[in-house]
Structure of Exonuclease:
Amino acid sequence: MILADFLVPTKIGLYCAYGNFYLDPKEMVRDAVISHAHGDHAISGNFNVYCTKATSLFMIQRYKKFAAGEFHLYAFHAEFVLNEVKISFIPAGHILGSALVMMEYKGVKYLYTGDYKLQPDTTCEPIEFAEADVLITETTFANPDTKHPDVELEIKKLNATTSNIMLGAYALGKSQRLIKLISDLCPQRRILVHHSILPFVKIYEQMGIDMGKYEVYDRKVMKNTKTDMIYLVPPLVYRSYIKAVNVIRVFATGWKHLQHNNELQLFISDHVDWDDIIYTIEKVKPKEIWTTHGSGIQLKSYYSNIITVKLLN
């Protein structure tokens, strides 16, 4: 029997009383099961953190000694138990080390997605599907009007100009994906990487990921080379260099409102779009769908009288 209160939304995050742990808590807790290392899912200071190895490395890089009291690392598909809840991690395809969290209690399986994507990405483990009684899915782009374009066609837009480009992207996950895509699909470009992004790139390489060709940012190189340079920077730098001259400004994101005023629009998302969510539901075959991280209203309407959809937001 599916337990309606197996996961309860709180101000701290999703709490599982049956296992006495939180999923991706927003405040420090004793036991935190972390799906991936982005800052809105993995904060510092939790006493026990249960995650994949890559997630721990990214958290340690970001938070240093405050990353966690103790890490408990598990390979994909390895099972562990918190109280009476059996847990395992399944590749989520979002960033390196990202995981769907399978939880089983009294014979019922609950699958929490964290953030996930279905588009191909050679810089992280591809998503795997598993059947579950309840799918707890993110709904960041759960809108029938949202369809992410082909990522290779988007990257090839950069070949339309020889001008130097300031490319804004999130430092973890998106940046590494972009470096590899540009290296493969825009080979004439020289990629200069901001120093704050480099430690994450090095962890990717440490974990065996081929990152392609890139260089550490050098102001003189950028200044003296007038064409075919791409300066990859995190969002804060991108916003602060609003008056940068002699560059085309581009920000890689799936959000349309963040593309305003950019001279070239690069729609690249590391989340599922509407069609991908529907496909995931077909593969997981849940009896119920619980939604989080976004609005699930349109999913609830779409599956009306077919599958129970509960909004956890």
